[in-house]
UniProtKB/TrEMBL annotation:
Belongs to the short-chain dehydrogenases/reductases (SDR) family. Transmembrane segments: none annotated. NCBIfam families: PRK12826.1-2 (NF009466). PROSITE patterns: ADH_SHORT. It comes from Secundilactobacillus kimchicus JCM 15530. The keyword Oxidoreductase applies. Keywords: Oxidoreductase. This is Short-chain dehydrogenase reductase SDR. Residues 4-180 form the Ketoreductase domain. It comes from the Bacteria. Pfam families: adh_short_C2. One of its GO terms (molecular function) is oxidoreductase activity. SMART domains: PKS_KR.
Length: 239
């Protein structure tokens, strides 16, 4: 499998980095996307793990295509694409600006489309490949203050299912992971009061570790018959 590239968007921190570290540890040939050139020290640490980087923004269609091309310089074929890059700009619906709504859709949904299109073309030619989309439980349930984010993640699930149908004939699989709360910068930004209120709703009484999301990702990369599915990993939050 070392000649097959696994490309992860937003792999420089949080869940994306945990996935990169896990898959590199499994012997996968991992390439991550970063929005900016990383500091030398971070590049050296990634290099030590055998993780390559390509630079670009998923919201730009041409850059997305170029990042897929650049990633392919590191291997013979595209084994996996993990659409992980994402942002949130939370506000109650009545106070949410159109700009904030569009920005979140553009990154979380259009960005995934921009990356998946060239990836799917390659995978269909290869007659194999796995695309994994980082959705969220709020794409299934909706959430107060997250009209933009929930809509983007619900849209991502629709995109995922369509790719599974269009790619199925040529053995391309497409699945989504729907995490609940995960310990990353994104959830660190929440106030202690909000964190406590959410924790009270989680039967597991803790947030997930990014490595626990990476675990599910490794499963979806390797299993050859699961497709079109959303795997929820939320400590029971949505029960
Ligand atoms: P972080 O905020 O820690 O990291 C987000 C990553 O996405 C960063 O690498 C960031 O790059 C990158 N990114 C953002 N915008 C773009 C862009 N336009 N082009 C390329 N890369 C971009 O987030 P998490 O690790 O917490 O989340 C990862 C994914 O998991 C997201 O899709 C998120 O919605 C989803 N998720 C997270 C949950 C959580 O509780 N943390 C729960 C459910 C889903 P940079 O470093 O340059 O900003």
């Amino acid at each position: 499998m070392a000649d097959g590239v696994v490309l992860i968007t937003g792999g420089n921190r949080g869940i994306g980095l945990a996935i990169a570290e896990r898959l590199a540890g499994d012997g996968e040939n991992v390439v991550i996307t970063t929005r900016h050139e990383l500091p030398e020290s971070q590049l050296a640490a990634l290099d030590a793990l055998g993780i390559h980087t390509v630079v670009g923004d998923v919201t730009d269609e041409a850059e997305a295509q170029r990042m897929v091309n650049d990633a392919m310089k590191h291997g013979e074929w595209l084994r996996g694409l993990i659409n992980n890059a994402g942002i949130n700009r939370d506000k109650l619906m009545t106070r949410m600006s159109t700009e904030d709504f569009n920005a979140v859709l553009q990154t979380n949904l259009v960005g995934a489309f921009n990356m998946s299109k060239p990836a799917l073309k390659l995978m269909q030619k290869q007659r194999q490949g796995s695309i994994i989309h980082m959705a969220s439980v709020v794409g299934l349930t909706g959430n107060v203050g997250q009209a933009n984010y929930a809509a983007s993640k619900a849209g991502l699930i629709g995109l995922m299912k369509t790719i599974a149908k269009e790619g199925g004939l040529r053995q391309v699989r497409s699945n989504a992971i729907a995490p609940g709360m995960v310990e990353t910068d994104m959830t660190d930004a929440l106030s202690d009061k909000t964190k406590e209120a959410i924790l009270a709703e989680i039967p597991a009484k803790r947030f997930a570790k990014p490595a626990e999301i990476a675990d599910v990702c490794a499963f979806l990369l390797n299993n050859e018959y699961v497709t079109g599915q959303v795997i929820t990993i939320d400590g029971g939050l949505t029960l």
